[in-house]
Every structure is written in C-alpha cells, then in structure tokens.
Amino acid sequence: MKYIEEFRNAELAQGLSRAIAAAVDPQRIYRFMEFCGGHTHAIARYGVEDLLPTNVRMIHGPGCPVCVLPVGRVDEAVALATQHDVILCTYADLMRVPGTNYESLIKARSKGADVRMVYSTLDALKIAADNPEREVVFFAIGFETTTPPTASAIKQAQARGLKNFSVYCNHVLTPAAMRAILGAYTDEGAPNVILDGFVGPAHVSAVIGMRPYEEFTRDYKKPVVIAGFEPLDVMQAVLQLIRQSNEGRADVENEYARAVTLEGNLKAQALTAEVFDLRDSFEWRGLGAVPLSALQIRPEFAAFDAEKRFRVEVPNPKENKACACGEILRGEKTPTECKIFGTVCTPDNPMGACMVSSEGACAAHWTYGRFREAPPLEKSA
Amino acid sequence: MNAPLDKSLRKPKARALDLKQGRIDMSHGAGGRAMAQLIEELFVGQFDNAILNREHDAAMFELPPGRVVMSTDTFVVSPLFFPGGNIGSLAVHGTVNDLAMGGGVPKYLTAGFILEEGFPLSDLAEIVKSMAKAAREAGVAIVTGDTKVVERGKGDGIFINTAGVGVVPDGIEVCGDRARPGDIVLVSGTLGDHGVAVMSKRENLSFSTEILSDSQSLNDLVADMLASVPGMRVLRDPTRGGLAATLNEIAHQSGVGVELAEAAIPIRGEVKSACELLGLDPLYVANEGKLIAICPPENAERLLAVMQAHPKGREAAIVGHVLDDARCFVRMKTQLGGTRMVDWLAGEQLPRIC
C-alpha cells in the first residue's frame, strides 16, 4: 500500500516523537484540538498518545458528522422512513444513532421500515432508478467533503429525470463550528475551552482550501496546522503547533500539502454553491443553534429537497440527560468524564452519538484506548 | 448379505433432471417423486458413499475409539459464488474446521438444504459438486441430508446447514479456556482474504481484486500440528469477526489478556488496500481457511516450523503472547510504536460473510 504505509512508518514516528519531546517547554501544558473525527480515530487507532509527552494534550473536536447531528434530525429521518413509506438510504454509521427514546433507523428497519445502507450517493441514485414506483430519500450528512457528491447526485437526478429521488440535507460547515467553539465563554467571561491551536481538517481542507482558517489566526490568535489523517501527519502537525506556540505565532500552516492547496477544489466549491445555499441557523448536537453553519438545497432544486416534499412532524426531541456528548463535542469534557461512559453507554448499546461513529471521541477511546484507565497490568508469568 | 436390489426395477423411469435449464419448484420439497429424483440424481450421485447410498432417514456408522466431537453451522453467504469458492465448499470447510479446532479428526457430515423456488438446478448442481469435492479432499463422508423448498421470495436462493462428528484422539486437550500467561499466539497465514474476496463481489461494491477466498479444510494441517505438539492449548478458526473477535473470545474463556504485535501479523497488500478503501479493519474481517494456535512458549518454534512446512501454513507467523490480565483485554503494539486495544466487534461489519 504505497503512499499510505509510509505515513505509518515506525522509525519516522520515533524521530518525530523525539523532536516533539525536544521542542516542548516542560513548564507549560499544550492543548491542541484535533477538529476532525478522522484525526481522533487515527490518534486512538495507532496509539499516537503513547508517542507524545504528557504535557501535550489532544482535545477531541466536533468534526464527526454523525456525532453532531442533533436528536431532532434523527427523529425526523425515522419519521420519514416510518410515516411516508419511503426507501431511506443512509450511510452505515447513521443507522445506529439514537434519537428520542433510543429510537434509531436500525430499530425502525427491524419494525418494517425500508432503510438501506449505501456506500455512496450513486447507490442511492441506482435504487431510485430501480424503484420508480417508490419514493427514495438520501439521508445526506457530513462536512464540506461529502457535500459535493450530494450536489452531484441532485444534478444527476435532475438530468436523468429521476422524479422519485430527494435528499434530506444535513450538510454542515467546519469554520462555523470552530467559530462556535472559540466564541463560547463562561458567565465569568473566560473561554469555555482553553486551546493553544487546531490540528486542521484533512479532507475538508482539500475542498475548501486554507483561506477559511485565516480568521482564526487573525481574530483569535490560534495557530491552525492542516494535517492528513495518517498518524505521522498528526504528529508532524503537533510539532508545528508546538513550534508556533513557543514562538508566539498564529499562522495557517499546511502539513497536508499532498492534497490541500491554498484555494482548495474550485470545481467542488462551484458545484456546492450551485446546488446549496446557507441556512440562517442550524441545530448541532453539543453546540446548539449555530448561525450560518449549515447548507440547504436552493429553491431551484426544491423538487429534490425531502424537507419540501414530505411533511414530517415529530414531538419535541429529547436527548438522554445523562449523556455528555454535548460537552465532549465542545471539548469541555473527556469521554471518561461522562457518567455513563462504558457503563450504560458502549458501542454495542450507544446512548449518545459520540459512541456510535468510529470517529466519535467516545467510541475511539472505548475501542482503542480504555486499557489506559484501568489499573496497571501485572507482569506476565 | 442379500444381493443388491436392482433399483431400476423399483421406480418407473422418469426423465432425468434438467441440470442446464431446470429450476427448483415446490414439488422438489414435497416428499414425492420429484424430491426423490433430486436426491437420487444429484445428492446421492455426488456425495456417493456406502452409508448414504442405503437411503435410510438416519445414517448408521461406527466411530473409532476416543471422545466424539460434534458441531453444526449454517451458511447464508451472499453472493453464493465468490472468488475461490462457493456456499457449498464453504459449508463443508466450515464444519470440518470446527471439528478440527476441537482437536478432532472429522469423520461424517450431514447436509441440510433450504432451497428457494426458482433456484436454477445448474447452480445447485455446481454447489453440490463443490461440496462433494471438498468432502473428498477433507476425507469426510456426507452421510445424511435434508431438502426443503420455500416459496419464491421467502429465501435467498439457497441456505445450507452442515453438521459433523469426529473423534478426538486420547491425550489431545485443546479448548478455548486453556490459554495461560506466557503462551505464544500463532496464525497459520494471511488474514482477511475470505471477507475481502466476498465483499469484492457484492452488488453495490464490486471492485476488482485478485484476492481469492482462503476457504479450505484445515484438518490435515491440524493433524501435523498435534502430532508435533500434542500439548497445544487452543485452536480456533477466526471466521466471523476475524482475529479480533476470536482472540477476545479466547481471552474471556481463559481469563487472560493477549498482546499482539501489529508488525508480525501477515496481511496481503491487496487486502490492506481493500480494507483501507472500505473503511474496514482487516483484524475484524472473516477467514475460512486459517487458524489461530496457542501453545506453551517452549513449543512455539517447533510448532511454527511444522506449520510452515505444510502447504496450508506456509505463511504462518508468531503474532503475540498471552498475558496475565483479569480484564481479559486484547491489546496490540502498533506498527507506529504505540499501544491500542483490539476490542470486540461492535455491530455488524460485514453481514452474510459465511
């Protein structure tokens, strides 16, 4: 697997680990947020934590599309599938996200709803073409990376005259979420989360480029280092963040130059702008209502907008009160600080979305890292 | 002994089964002449052995001395034909291997078929031939069976159940609860081949790969291993849930921990690439022709040599060791130099893989 294995190389990792150890000021604590669930997953899966000094803390951010989807939107998707007899096409992770009263799409399916797992928007289009007598709804979620394929699917459906295809749009925007985290203050006026910088998104940045992060270096004085999703990418980004912190700089740097350019993917940006425009406000799990943080389908494409085509009414959505997904997504709590982590809430029986997606902070910690909390191992015989 | 009956005198001559164009219909499961013809021309014809040929409802046989080991497994794999095998060969290998993992010498199998109305007889014939071939190669006989037909839309072509019996020789004691701290963990070859081969043919995924399923019977390999290391503690085939699920089961049964070394685990480049693409972890992908062996440390090198000397164990490797750990965690030193858990599988990763 050329071009991937190189970014998991043990010798290079040891070298970076030594460089990071040499660069840190032992007198201070460094707190960096990795925005993306992809980074959270890489850190946990490859054991990156073991290669960082203890005064470098990685704080998990809200960049997990499944995790930030609020309960209300899950409830609406369940209602679409159960009340309107549509074929609801969804990515696998979403099937298990609990809505109000632990209802989920996978439970709806077991009760007879036609919910199908797809790997891409093209699968959903094919299902629509193969089932002209049925309404087919694609449950679209994700940040800027998955938006262009959804836009493309809508345009293809229009071109092919697929009148039974529509999209339930939940696409959200990265910079708005970063702004929401940096702009949150306690009643005493202190920032909710103390951060020294961001490991910036990988795939998202390949689409949107580097410029959207300039406001964070300019207005909030937080360094941003865009990094790929491989473990060496993350370590290199951490080293660059430490250097910026030590030098008192706040710049946008690009560790992921093999995929990310200053301007990003202009074609994808144009396609997105053609099909979507901004919502005034959108509810995020954990962040609450965030202005100008999500996309909706433009009126020209209203025929493909499931929200326009189907009337869905759900009672007041209710989150599990004990679930700390909100604080965890804001970086205010670690997974183990949640009362139900690992007791009531596990990947087999998730109470909150952070335990569902493999990119969620709770699932990543439970699946890969929970041996760290337990008492030290006895020596092998 | 009576002279054998001339069966042609007993039944009126029917037209032979149309194995090219014919399809299963409800009469093939109704207990009448059509069912008898299907059994005789296809199943008895292919599985051909003295016990089955007597056509009793139950097979009668003697077993050599020793403890009897018994297992059953049901196969619903989709698609039915995949690179390197089909549901028929898989159904034989699966049960033969379950018996072998108990330290048993597999002897006899049963075969139950649930067929869907409309299923092509040509496909059924190919599947049954593969079963017969797999059984011959593994040295087992399919001695009794059953056929049911369900209406169109109530099945998915064909489901197969096999059950089997074997005999465990005296002095052999392999079981999932016998791993001890300090023991060594070996695998017999590359992991994830079966799962990736099947996935590559799924309707909504179809990617091209050279990977073949590793579906094969392992009783001959196990025989060599036990002859050389009779003190073997655990044998297990990492099927559904892959190496990760199987090691977690063993850790819990034995009340121990396991530590793997990622760099030592044999996985083909193509399998790694496919898993990367599909977002799967090869440690959780199913195998149908590989085994995990756990043995005392002093036997490990000898066992490895015996495995590597066998054609089905050429790529065998030592991948980890057993630890004292009351929490029964399976952990792994990553290639990068960190440590992580290798946890139970949550939810379903690859439905209908076997």
Q: If you had to describe this structure to a student in words, what would you say it looks like?
A:
The complex is a heterodimer of chains A (about 375) and B (about 350). By secondary structure, chain A is α/β, with parallel strands linked by helices. Chain A has a single domain (about 1-370), classed as Rossmann fold (3-Layer(aba) Sandwich). Helices cover about 35% and strands about 15% of the residues of chain A. Chain A contains 15 helices and 13 strands. In chain A, the strands form four sheets. Chain A has a five-stranded parallel sheet. A four-stranded parallel sheet of chain A has the order 4-3-5-6, with helices on both faces. A two-stranded antiparallel sheet of chain A has the order 10-13. In chain A, β3 (about 85-90), α5 and β4 form a beta-alpha-beta unit. Mean pLDDT of chain A is about 90; it is low at about 375-380. Chain B is α+β, with helices and mostly antiparallel strands. Chain B folds into two domains: about 15-170, PurM-like, N-terminal domain (60s Ribosomal Protein L30, Chain: A, 2-Layer Sandwich); about 185-340, PurM-like C-terminal domain (Phosphoribosyl-aminoimidazole Synthetase, Chain A, domain 2). Chain B is about 30% helix and about 20% strand. Chain B contains nine helices and 13 strands. Chain B has helices at about 35-45, 50-55, 85-100, 120-140, 195-200, 220-230, 240-255, 270-280, 300-310, and strands spanning about 65-75, 80, 85, 105-115, 140-150, 160-170, 185, 235, 255-260, 290-295, 315-325, 330-335, 340. In chain B, the strands form three sheets. A seven-stranded mixed sheet of chain B has the order 8-10-7-11-9-12-13. A four-stranded mixed sheet of chain B has the order 1-6-4-5. In chain B, β2 (about 80) and β3 (about 85) form a beta hairpin. Chain B is globular. Chain B starts with about 30 loop residues before the first helix and ends in a 13-residue tail after the last strand. The relative contact order of chain B is 0.16. The model of chain B has no long low-confidence stretch (mean pLDDT about 90).
